[in-house]
Amino acid sequence: MSTAATAVEQVVQARLIISTQRSVPMRVTLRYRVVDPLAVRMAFPAEYSLDEVPPDGAPDGSVQGAGHEVEWVFARQLLAAGLDGPAGIGDVHIRPALAARTVVELRAAEGVALLQFDCPELRRFLWRSFLVVAEGEEHQYLDADRALAELLG
């Protein structure tokens, strides 16, 4: 490891695209962890979740949306590739947009979310993650036993 850090976290501003004429600002937390060196995480505030919660609150009695952020996990390499050209298959697609922006498209059974980010913020996050684990060196940090235990959970 090139530094003592084991994680990178950065809060960035994004715009949730509602229509061609309307978008809303939202705070997104980007995370990178050495224990999962191939992945990045994008965490969104709970109020943007499409999960169904009963009107009287969650099963555990908590208030709807209280404290449970929504997190998407995808390949760090996908984020890097999407800054320079269209990238992605499946649930996450990333592509450059006009005016030094990047569009992230998240697809789920509940619908599709389009988010727009400023490229410099995403590049800064990636750069910081590469300081922790250099690109191409991720295999040195993989823990197959831990990954298997998480999968079998």
* Low-confidence residue ranges: 58-65
Mean pLDDT, to the nearest integer, reads 85
Principal-axes shape call: globular
Name the helicity range. Answer: 10-25%
How many strands appear in the DSSP assignment? 7
Over the alpha carbons, how many angstroms does the gyration radius reach?
17 Å
Order of helices and strands: EEEEHEEEHH
Can you summarize the main beta sheet? 7 strands, antiparallel
Pairing-aware structural class of the strands and helices?
alpha+beta
What's the helix count? 3
% residues in beta strands: 35-45%
- Describe the strand arrangement of the main beta sheet, using strand numbers: 4-3-2-1-7-6-5
Task: Tell me what the structure shows.
- The chain contains three helices and seven strands.
- About 5% of the residues have low confidence.
- It is 20% helix and 37% strand.
- The chain starts with 6 loop residues before the first strand and ends with a helix.
- With 153 residues, it is an alpha+beta fold.
- A seven-stranded antiparallel β-sheet has the order 4-3-2-1-7-6-5, with helices on both faces.
Short description:
The chain has 3 helices and 7 strands; from the N terminus they run ββββαβββαα. The chain has 153 residues and is α+β, with helices and mostly antiparallel strands.
